[in-house]
Design a protein that fits this description.
Layout lengths: L4 E3 L8 H16 L7 E4 L1 H9 L6 H18 L2 E2 L5 E2 L1 E7 L10 E4 L5 H9 L2 H19 L4 H15 L9 H19 L7 H15 L3 H10 L7 E7 L10 E8 L6 E9 L5 H4 L5 E2 L3 H4 L1 H18 L3 E8 L2 E9 L4 H13 L5 H7 L12 E2 L1 H6 L2 E4 L1 E4 L2 E7 L2 H9 L4 E5 L7 H5 L3 E4 L7 H9 L2 E4 L5 E3 L4 E4 L2 E4 L3 E5 L4 E4 L4 E2 L5 H13 L3 E5 L3 H9 L5 E5 L10 H9 L3 H26 L4 E4 L13 H11 L3 H10 L12 H6 L1 H22 L6 E4 L5 H22 L6 E6 L2 H5 L1 H4 L5 E4 L1 H9 L10 H6 L16 H15 L4 E4 L7 H10 L3 E4 L4 H16 L1
Helix pairs in contact: 4-5, 5-7, 6-7, 13-14, 13-19, 14-19, 19-34, 20-22, 21-22, 22-26, 23-24, 26-27, 33-34
Bound molecules: adenosine-5'-diphosphate (ADP) and magnesium ion (2 copies).
Length: 874
């Protein structure tokens, strides 16, 4: 018989895939002898089984759950559903990777109309018992039965208003009894039946709800954003309750062993006296800093600090802990390696190395490669900051600088972002439904909520700037305005947020580019020491190249040449070339372009100071260069001394039904070899001249795009070699050069062994290769990809994350075939995927020579490459 349920003492930290993160750590803490309310974990495999069985929990699983429940009853000396001394439990989700706010927890399960009285009598605290019951009804209805939370909140607000009080804690037992009555009526109205009184039914419904929640929309979106596979499933933890809401020597809190924002060593957290569960993070009452606990309950504080330190020592990483104090007794409810900003991650990793707790390799692997993105974002320009008008100040919840237009709903933020606007999302407080809108925003500003509020935690995870808890704001979300510092801001007005200071500025403050220094530099140096893959960049201009160099690029893997033709002084010349009727005319037009191309290449070679540069010859279909509307065509005709009709006809003749698969790439060089000739001359002359001038030893790499057959490549190569040799002779140079190809058509991957006879290097153009392998265009996926996510056909965008199963197979095969023909063949990748960590790992495994990515992703690729190499060794 399979084992579906594990008692905490049966598990351990390394059983995370089976028990989920929360369950595995509860088990580990139990075995460390820490004060953990006992319980058991229903495994992630049970979740998978639930889905496989058409969303049903099998009898076998059910039996094991109730068997463990009996063990728990024995241990706690309480009985589930007992009228005298009832056992109450929490039902908590916990997936393998932590998904904050994604899954829902139910507290106080086991209460019903009868046991609540027993509970009241036992604890001698009626108010507390009723408070627990009303919370349970509320949570169960919301989480399990999807009866909107707001219906219950409204009742609470009404009762408080009637009594002229602010807080739940000011309601007495009688008030709460009334609340419970009304809650149950709401339940019955909505569900058509009474609130379930049988605790076993409550429990099984709750377990099912946790399994179900694995597949709610929020969870799916979160998984897609964080690369979490859909088939992992979530575990369910059932745990005896402890109560933070028993009075003034009780409370609940969350804390980190180091500051999750800056990485500074030292305890950091918040707690609330006389509160339960989510009260701290929900921002309902403003919590106290954890250090205040030293005054309120000194013994608890000392014990808490002792355990916190022990946990950090044990896990050798910064811990994020949840605890509850019940009548002066401290319990730990959770620990995990804490989420942190990239800046904090770097500091913590370096500090742990300096403290002798982890190795350099471990430090490198501790940084989430994607998160470096946060550090490559701009900060405010010093002068802009000095002159900026501060309207108010909130909590510095997630660092960074953000300026943009204010929007008041996640939906509108998303839409504005789609229009290309920079967005600041302003909310009373955020909730999990806002995730996508938060993702679309440059910055998030909330009126309520502390450093551990939903907005703060999620923003830090995303690396988005966030200022939370700015209570001075007077907001009207419905009418879409807020007031701060005596100024009214409407939707669309600009504000700027400094997530490192919490300051809120009026207007659109100027920002400044980031640099790599300090801890960042240290980690990157370690990464460079351990990685095997080289990292190049995709850069078409000296400015891009320079940027990439600063971020550690070792060469250019893709220099596109088409962008060089769009400048106002060049486009007429390329148009002239395109509209030419004879080879002679075309050559004459191309000759005019040579000086421009040559100076472009010189600029890039000079910037790269002799590092390798791969130049791709003209790739796009020619129609991209010609005008489409009559006025422009008229102007062009006049300029060229041609008839309007003639030019128009010629432009129209360039129309293609499917330009992506049309007259482009090397096909241009096959039909118009003079284009390749011109480009070769420009490249060779530029390289020779820069070598002479600066003493570089550049060996230009000329890359032919869109090859699908060896003969195609051979044809173009011959044209290039002729001109290159000619230039060498003219310039009396013995410069070396290399000719290679992109592998971006599936046929080229299939025939890579033949193509390698002609190609000195391959560069996998995974954008086109993905399009052609899937048979859909990147520009058109927007129309259907969401349905594919919803129907779970795809979990991620194959243009962002390499499809290792399909496209990856082509890459692997082509790499092997290429190496067979030419053992020293240089292999690279130059699609968007070159900067995506999981794709970089794949490139390492396949044994590519380098990855090439956009300048801002260079540090991410360097780190991901090091992590792949280090993990490979282990
Ligand atoms: P999340 O994953 O969203 O943090 P948790 O399962 O950790 O959800 O539950 C949220 C909070 O509920 C905990 O931080 C804790 O305060 C409270 N809680 C959960 N289980 C118990 C319990 N057995 N006793 C007391 N409080 C609990
Ligand atoms: Mg938790
Ligand atoms: Mg291409």
């Amino acid at each position: 018989m399979a084992k579906w349920v594990y008692r905490f003492e049966e598990g351990s930290a390394d059983m995370r895939p089976l028990l989920g993160g929360k369950g595995a750590n509860l088990a580990e803490m139990t075995n460390l002898g820490l004060p953990i309310p006992q319980g058991f974990t229903v495994t992630t495999e049970a979740c998978t089984d639930y889905y496989n069985k058409g969303k049903k929990i099998s009898d076998e699983i059910k039996d094991q759950i109730f068997a463990e429940l009996a063990v728990l009853e024995e241990k706690q000396q309480k009985k589930f559903g007992d009228t005298d001394n009832p056992l109450l439990v929490s039902v908590r989700s916990g997936a393998r990777a932590s998904m904050p706010g994604m899954m829902d927890t139910i507290l106080n399960l086991g209460l019903n109309d009868v046991s609540v009285e027993g509970f009241a009598a036992r604890t001698g605290n009626k108010r507390f018992a009723y408070d627990s019951y009303r919370r349970f009804i509320q949570m169960f209805s919301d989480v399990v039965m999807e009866v909107p939370k707001s219906l219950f909140e409204r009742v609470l607000d009404e009762v408080k208003n009637k009594k002229h009080v602010h807080y739940d804690t000011e309601l007495n037992a009688d008030d709460l009894m009334g609340v419970i009555k009304r809650f149950k009526t709401i339940y019955k109205d909505k569900m058509g039946e009474d609130f379930p009184q049988d605790p076993k039914v409550q429990l099984m419904e709750a377990v099912k709800a946790v399994f179900r929640s694995w597949d709610n929309e929020r969870a799916i979106v979160y998984r897609r954003m964080n690369d979490i596979p859909g088939d992992w499933g979530t575990a369910v933890n059932v745990q005896a309750m402890v109560f933070g809401n028993m009075g003034d020597t009780s409370g609940t809190g969350v804390a980190f062993t180091r500051n999750p924002s800056t990485g500074e060593k030292g305890i950091f957290g918040e707690y609330l006296i006389n509160a339960q569960g989510e009260d701290v993070v929900a921002g309902i009452r403003t919590p106290q800093p954890i250090t205040k606990l030293a005054e309120d309950l000194p013994e608890c504080y000392a014990k808490f600090m002792e355990i916190a330190n022990k946990l950090e020592e044990h896990y050798r990483d910064m811990q994020d802990m949840e605890f509850t104090i019940e009548n002066g007794n401290l319990y730990f409810l959770q620990t995990r390696n804490g989420k942190r900003t990239a800046q904090a991650a770097l500091k913590i990793a370096c500090d742990l190395v300096d403290e002798g707790k982890i190795t350099e390799q471990e430090a490198v692997c501790r940084i989430e490669a994607k998160s470096l993105d946060q550090l490559l974002h701009p900060t405010f320009d010093d002068i802009a900051l000095r002159d900026g008008e501060v309207m108010g100040i909130g909590l510095p919840a997630s660092p960074g600088a953000a300026a943009g237009k204010v929007y008041f709903t996640a939906e509108e933020a998303k839409i504005a972002h789609g229009r290309g606007e920079r967005v600041i999302l302003v909310r009373l407080e955020t909730s999990p439904e806002d995730i996508e809108g938060m993702h679309a925003s440059e910055g998030i500003l909330t009126v309520r909520g502390g450093m551990t509020s939903h907005a703060a935690v999620v923003a830090r995870g995303m690396g988005t700037c966030c200022v939370s808890g700015c209570g001075a704001i007077n907001i009207n979300e419905d009418e879409k305005w807020f007031e701060l510092g005596g100024v009214k801001f409407n939707e669309g007005d600009y504000i700027s947020l400094d997530g490192s200071t919490g300051k809120i500025y009026r207007g659109d403050l100027r920002t400044r580019d980031a640099v790599i220094s300090g801890n960042f530099e240290r980690i990157m140096n370690w990464a460079d020491k351990y990685r095997k893959l080289r990292v190049r960049t995709n850069a078409d201009t000296p400015a891009d190249a320079l940027n990439a160099l600063k971020l550690g690029a070792e060469g250019i893997g893709l220099c596109r040449t088409e962008h060089m033709f769009f400048d106002a002084d060049r486009i007429p010349k390329i148009r002239k070339m395109i509209l030419s009727n004879t080879v002679e005319q075309r050559e004459a037009a191309l000759n005019e372009l040579i000086p421009f191309q040559k100076s472009d290449f010189k600029g890039i070679f000079k910037t790269m100071e002799g590092r390798p540069v791969t130049i791709r010859f003209l790739d796009p279909p020619l129609h991209e260069f010609v005008p489409t509307d009559d006025a422009d065509i008229k102007a062009l005709a006049k300029e060229m001394g041609l008839k309007f009709e003639e030019v128009k006809a010629k432009c129209e003749s360039l129309h293609e039904f499917n330009p992506m698969m049309g007259h482009r790439g090397c096909r241009l060089a096959v039909t118009y070899p003079e284009i390749a000739r011109m480009q070769t001359r420009a490249v060779m002359e530029a390289a020779i001249e820069e070598n002479e001038k600066y003493g570089f030893s550049i060996e230009p790499e000329i890359m032919i795009p869109l090859v699908g057959d060896k003969k195609e490549l051979k044809f173009v190569k011959k044209v290039i070699v002729e001109v290159a040799e000619q230039v060498k002779k003219e310039k009396k140079s013995d410069i070396k050069y290399h000719i290679g190809t992109m592998i971006e058509i599936p046929r080229a991957a299939l025939l890579a062994d033949e193509i390698a006879e002609e190609a000195e290097f391959f560069s996998f153009g995974t954008n086109d290769l993905t399009q052609m392998t899937f048979g859909f265009s990147r520009d058109d996926t927007g129309k259907f990809i969401d349905s594919y996510y919803k129907s779970k056909i795809y979990e991620s965008d194959p243009f962002a994350k390499l499809d290792q199963n399909g496209v990856g197979q082509l890459i692997q095969m082509a790499a092997e075939k290429g190496r067979k023909t030419r053992p020293d063949i240089k292999l690279g990748i130059c699609g968007e995927h070159g900067g995506d960590p999981s794709s970089v790992e794949f490139c390492h495994k396949v044994g590519l020579t380098y990855v090439s990515c956009s300048p801002f992703r260079v540090p991410i690729a360097r780190l991901a490459a090091a992590q792949a190499a280090i993990n490979d060794e282990q």
